[in-house]
Amino acid sequence: MSGAVLGEQATVAIVDDHEAVRLGLRAACRDAGYDVVAETADVPTLLAALAAREGGRCDVVVLDLSLGDGSSVTENVRSVLATGSAVLVHSIADRVAAVREALAAGAAGVIPKASPMASVIAAIATVARGEALTNVEWASAIEADRDFAKAQLGRREHDVLHLYASGLPLKLVATQLGIAHSTAREYLDRIRAKYVEVGRPAPTKVDLLRRAVEDGILPGLDGDGGDARR
C-alpha cells in the first residue's frame, strides 16, 4: 500500500456511526485540503462507495472502533486494508483491547477521539504519506494495562492450549484429557476468541504456539522450531 503521491491531493474516507463526528471530521479534512471521498456509518457501505471509485481505494480511512453494527475490529480493519487504503483508527481512550486488536490487524496508527482536531489532521497527513503513526501514548497505555497482557484462560483452556500448541493433534489432546473431540474443539474456539479480545489474534496453530510461548504456557523455542510444529 503506497501513500499519496507528492503534490496530489490526498483522499480520505470517514467511518463513524455518529453523524456529528463524521460532519466534524469532513469539515476539518476539507479545510486542510483533503479530498473526502466517502463518509459512512459502517464498513460495508464504505466498501461499496470505494468500489464505485476509479482505483477502488483512497489514501486514508479514518475508522471508528466503536461501530454499533456488531462488526469485529479485525474484520473491519482487514476489509479496509484489502482495498489498498490505509487505516487510521479513531478511538475513545478506554478501548485498549480494541486498539491492540486494530494494530495487530494492520492499522497504521491510532488517534484518540479526545485529541485536538489539529492532531487528527496531522495524523492523517502522516498516514497519507505511507508512514506508520507513532503510537507512544497508546503503547504506554497498553503496556501498563496488565489485565490485557495475557488472555485470561481457564484451567482446562490452559491444558488444551499447552497440549495442542506442543504439537498434538486435537483428537489426541481430547484423548489425553479424557474429553470429547467436540469439547476440545469448543475449548480451542474459546481460546482463540479470548486472544482476539485482547488484540492478539491466533488464527493458526503456529500463532497459538507463539501465544503459548509469550504467555509462559510453553518454554521458548530456538530458531525456527515453531514452524516445525504446524
Automatic annotation (TrEMBL):
<feature type="domain" description="Response regulatory">
    <location>
        <begin position="11"/>
        <end position="128"/>
    </location>
</feature>
<feature type="modified residue" description="4-aspartylphosphate">
    <location>
        <position position="64"/>
    </location>
</feature>
<dbReference type="InterPro" id="IPR016032">
    <property type="entry name" value="Sig_transdc_resp-reg_C-effctor"/>
</dbReference>
<protein>
    <submittedName>
        <fullName>Response regulator transcription factor</fullName>
    </submittedName>
</protein>
<dbReference type="Pfam" id="PF00072">
    <property type="entry name" value="Response_reg"/>
</dbReference>
<dbReference type="InterPro" id="IPR001789">
    <property type="entry name" value="Sig_transdc_resp-reg_receiver"/>
</dbReference>
<dbReference type="InterPro" id="IPR011006">
    <property type="entry name" value="CheY-like_superfamily"/>
</dbReference>
<keyword id="KW-0238">DNA-binding</keyword>
<dbReference type="InterPro" id="IPR036388">
    <property type="entry name" value="WH-like_DNA-bd_sf"/>
</dbReference>
<dbReference type="InterPro" id="IPR058245">
    <property type="entry name" value="NreC/VraR/RcsB-like_REC"/>
</dbReference>
<dbReference type="InterPro" id="IPR000792">
    <property type="entry name" value="Tscrpt_reg_LuxR_C"/>
</dbReference>
<keyword id="KW-0597">Phosphoprotein</keyword>
<dbReference type="Pfam" id="PF00196">
    <property type="entry name" value="GerE"/>
</dbReference>
<dbReference type="InterPro" id="IPR039420">
    <property type="entry name" value="WalR-like"/>
</dbReference>
